[in-house]
Amino acid sequence: MHQYLPLHRIECWNGAYFARSSLKSLGLRIQLGHPAGKRCPRPIKTWGDDFVIIDCDQIHSVGLDYCGCGDSSKGQVEQLLERRLYPATVVNPKTAATFRVLELFELLQYESKLSTYEFYQAVSRLTDNTGLQGIKDRYPTLLRLVHQWRHLKMLKRSGRGHDPFRGASETRPGECALLCPPCPHPGINLPEGWENVNREHRYLYALNIALDACFRMKRKDCSSEEADPGLSRGFAYVVEEAAFQEYLKKHEKTTEPKSTCSRHDAVNLADMHPGQGYASSGIATVECSRHNSKRPLADHGITLTVATCRDRFAFMLTPGAGLGDGEAPERGWGDLNPLATSTREMGPGTRRDTLDYHFGDYNWRKIIRLGNSLLKKMVMATSEVAEHVIAHQELEVTLDREQLQSWMEAMVAWELDPNNPNPYEVVVKTPTQAAVRRQLAEEEERALKAGTDVSLSDEVSPCSLIAMGIDLEGEQRSLKTLTQALWDHSQDRQITRVKLRSNALTRKLEEWFSLLQLYVPTSALLRKREPQTKEGPKPFEVRLWLPSQIGTRVSFDRSLAEIEYKLRSAQAHEALGVLRRNLQIRATLYDVKDRWLRARDEYRQARNALLALAALLNHQNVDQEFLPLEDKDIRSMSEAEPGQGETRRKLSWIWRRVNAADATEEETKAFVTETIRVEWGKSRARAQRYQEEIKLVQEEMDRTLRFFVWKVADWRSKGVAPRMKPISAEYAEGLKAYAE
Predict the structure, then answer these.
(1) What Pfam families does this protein's entry cite (predicted)?
(2) Angle between helical axes of 433-450 and 462-485 (0-180°, round to 10)
(3) 545, 516 contact by CB (below 8 A)
(4) Domain co-membership, 82 together with 215
């Protein structure tokens, strides 16, 4: 039996217990070149008769013989491959790995990013977990075997072995890359006349790509191109190194302009030196942004902070974008980042090849899941498109027809030429917390330069302290909402989530009070005076003792109150902006009621703080600038106050400027008109994007089917392609079988 299963692990009874043994010690020889169980009359032992086979569960030392009788016309390497053993060398091999261990490790690494060293150590310990048997180290050999195996599999899977005219070394750039079936490929999956469609439908045949860089994927300055050139020469996804270096030389004096509207590392760190001891600062990829597939060589992450750029380049506002979000590279890095630990230690060629293999597997997984992913997109778009379209139509019914026509003309003009005025930009602006915080930070910078800074901490300035307190208030409101949502039958995971949030907030509060005591030493006295309970207050009930809460109870630096006043003013403006935006959206479509409830609570809290600070700082007319927000004021523009008829209906004050008391009629009208225009434009964009998504996904489904039909025909033609040189019937049969 063991002649057919020569890699079994065996134990022999030694009179006292079963001791580990080997089939070789019992005289078993693995005969190559003959059917299993048949001996060769003239066997040729391996060189040194010390052959090692690496398998999934053990590193085996075996007796192995080649055929020397002439029945087999194949050489040593071919005889090993015929038995599904991959040799470490082509001349007098002494080590081989089974196909199954190479296949197992390949998939294990793709799924877990396991390193070759870790895998070898696991197999070595399965062989001997005591370290007493003196197993010969085959780790360098396995490294070479794995590298060759995956390179050959890449060539095989891309049909390079079927090419009758070009060998592997003549592989073209990108030829081994797996193409994305739903993407447009001229001559493969596009209908006739696609290039002549009108402008309105061009987006259906557009190639959507996204670019990004990952700076975790560094490489240490080890080895060299001469010592480790790699096996691939730009055959798949990573560019050919010589051509890339030539390109860099042509542009070595060119500096990438820094982004002025986004801290995007792929742009701003493009010219950064990788650092001492590193040869590469990272890698960049080009991907199809709709299906997350890596391209062959040949609202996201653009977290735009300048409003002009955000309104101009947002995917939801871009005609033809469908429901794409441009996040493809980010999702890809999430899958590949665990590979960084091992690739940073590799030589240049091995690293490029390893990335090619993993990119290929990443694409393959995308391809085999296309049916589910495209169906999911279609179901999501078709289930929501009607509601978005109806919501937009209902909004348009309430608008003036002439005004609507004017907006439509401006919108179309901007979509045709982005240099025209952007209808999504808000001209009437209100202060934001981010802008005020930046202004305060600049004031602190000037104070530092002038030597007049009064910060009592190297890490937390007065501005940062007050901003931290306002942020903590927001976390308290959020935790209170989550806690109130719990009930007797809440699930364990919901309770756990609230507990974890509560614990985290408690730790932040401890840090907050230690910092507050630096700037307001008397705050400790205020905390002592608070009524104490046996259980103590919940984290969201703890008073933070910001300047607005301290008032005149104790003395403190009034500059802290001025800082809070500026931040609270911006907070109130922002909260009203959120409230207005969400009241314009149908609550049946979006879960927006919670949003405007949060905005309501935030505004009320900010207003109370402003009134307290105004009394402390002697600021006038604050109660007129920030009006009280009652529940009856929270209504849409077309909604009347409860109890009022249409003839007496008045617009809620939240739709006028925040300082409604002194707003002129023209200012009020301009503000309301602008707010409506922007919300109408976004409503129109949402409805259009959902309709586009349905058409895009339908076209992608059709393209995927056409691509697969083309791929089947392409492989079948390769299987029967005429050869320049005669080949054996066995080889021809294998080519055809693999192609089929």
Answers:
(1) CxC2 (PF18803), KDZ (PF18758)
(2) 150
(3) yes
(4) no
- Total number of domains constituting the chain: 3
Question: pLDDT per residue over 656-711, tens digit each?
Answer: 554 444 455 566 667 667 777 888 888 889 899 999 999 999 999 999 999 999 99
Interval 124-158: pLDDT, tens: 999 999 888 878 899 999 999 999 999 999 999 99
**H/E segment holding residue 286:** strand 283-288
pLDDT in tens, 497-537: 889 999 999 999 999 999 998 898 988 888 888 887 777 78
What pLDDT score does 447 carry? 84
Residue 453 lies in a domain: yes
Please state whether 257 falls in left (phi above 0), alpha (psi between -120 and 50) or beta. beta
Is 200 found in the same domain as 100?
no
SS3 556: coil
Whether residue 453 sits in one domain with residue 368: no
- On whether both 96 and 241 belong to a single domain, the answer is no
Task: Provide the pLDDT confidence category of residue 22 given band limits of 50, 70 and 90.
Answer: confident
- Claim to verify: residue 294 and residue 216 sit in the same structural domain: yes
pLDDT over 90 (residue 654): no
Give the HSE-up count for residue 78: Cα atoms under 13 Å, Cβ half-sphere: 8
Check whether residue 638 and residue 527 sit in a common domain.
yes
375 is written with which tokens? Answer: 């169906």
Q: Is the pLDDT of residue 545 over 70?
A: yes
Tell me the DSSP string of 470-535.
Answer: HHHHHHHHHHHHHHHH--TT--HHHHHHHHHHHHHHHHHHHHHHHHHHHH-TTHHHHHHHSPP-SS
**Cβ atoms < 10 Å from Cβ of 352:** 27
Structural domain that includes position 232 = 194-381+696-739
Residue after which a domain boundary falls, among 641, 656, 671 = 656
Q: Are residues 620 and 716 in the same domain?
A: no
Q: Are residues 205 and 280 in the same domain?
A: yes
Residue with the two structure tokens 């701003």:
268
Model pTM score: 0.73
Q: Which of 656, 688, 710 is the last residue of a domain?
A: 656
Contact (Cβ atoms closer than 8 angstroms) between residue 599 and residue 575:
yes
**Selection from 340, 295, 280 nearest residue 115 by Cα:** 340
**Which is nearest to 45 in space by CA: 26, 21, 63, 69?**
63
